[in-house]
Every structure is written in structure tokens, then in C-alpha cells.
Amino acid sequence: MRAQSSVDYVDQIKPLLARKCLPCHGALKQEADLRLDTANSMIRAGVIVPMKPEQSELFQRIKTEDLSARMPPEGEPLSAAESLLIETWIKQDAEHPTDEQPQADPSQH
Measured in whole angstroms, how far is the alpha carbon of residue 70 from the centre of its chain? Predict the structure, then answer.
């Protein structure tokens, strides 16, 4: 598979994370005390190492064959195309908007 020339975080990565990761790592629920609703939170938590997917736990977890460590733990794993998208984004320095805001906690309304 050929890497895409440019991956857009807002249009491609964020919706993918919203579908596959945020049910367990978003505003309502933070399994392992981890939120993945902003790129900055992923970088601060160390699950994304910009330009180094092989050192990024998020990428390792979506690619592993070990079912006890794979993310997401239930349902379909990410497709090869989705994994490549995340890998390419990380290689491209995990570019993201600097003013990105975390999801609002609906229970606070």
C-alpha cells in the first residue's frame, strides 16, 4: 500500500478516532485514564510520538495481533487503510489545529 501524500487530522483522523476510540477514551469515559479526543492530549499522554509511529502506543495497539492488547478491544479492528492513515498522520508530525478543544462532557450540561 502506498502512503497518502497528506493526511488531514480534522477531516480524516478525528472522525476515525471518534468512531473507533472515543466511546472508551472520550468525554464520557476514560478507560485507563486516557482521553483521545484531541491530538494534544494524545501527545501529552505519550500515546502519539510525532514522526515515530513505531514508538507511538496508539499505533502499536491498533496494529498488534495480540487480542488482549489490541485496540479497539471489541468489534472490528481498524482496516489496513485506516491503520495506514494513522501511521501516515503520525509520520507527518501528527499535524493538528493548535486551538483544538476537547469534547464537552454531556453530563455537565
Answer: 13
- Give bridge partners of residue 30 from the DSSP assignment: 25
List phi, psi (to 5°) of 30. -130, 75
Give me 62's grid cell: 491498533
Is the Cβ–Cβ distance between 21 and 83 less than 8 Å? Answer: no
Residue 102 is given by DSSP the state P
C-alpha cell belonging to residue 96: 493538528
pTM listed for this prediction: 0.86
Domain ranges of the chain: 9-94
pLDDT tens digits for range 1-10 = 454 579 999 9
Q: Residue 87: enclosing H or E segment and its boundaries?
A: helix 80-91
**pLDDT tens string 24-48:** 998 778 888 898 999 999 999 999 9
Cell output for 39: 491530538
